[in-house]
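Here is the promised in-class demo. Please do not try to memorize the tokens; focus on the logic of going from shape to residues.
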């Protein structure tokens, strides 16, 4: 099992639309493979803990599912190694 942390920025940022950020969090939690989602302050707006069976599944999870959620502008993925 591959684990990763996905750091995301949103269009508009959390300061301007906190309710919309919560809706985005709820949408992310409905995606299979997304285990936890946190709204944060700082360089990123949302981070998600994700799991996938292999690199191909992880790539699909991030590129096709997470990045297609309305409002997600950018993402950076950190692979968990231990």
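The designed amino acids, position by position:
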């Amino acid at each position: 099992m591959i684990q990763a942390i996905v750091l995301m920025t949103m269009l508009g940022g959390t300061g301007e639309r906190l309710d919309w950020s919560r809706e985005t969090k709820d949408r992310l939690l409905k995606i299979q493979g997304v285990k936890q989602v946190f709204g944060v302050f700082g360089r990123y707006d949302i981070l998600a803990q994700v799991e996938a069976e292999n690199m191909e599944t992880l790539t699909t999870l991030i590129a096709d599912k997470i990045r297609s959620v309305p409002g997600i502008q950018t993402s950076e993925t950190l692979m968990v190694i231990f």
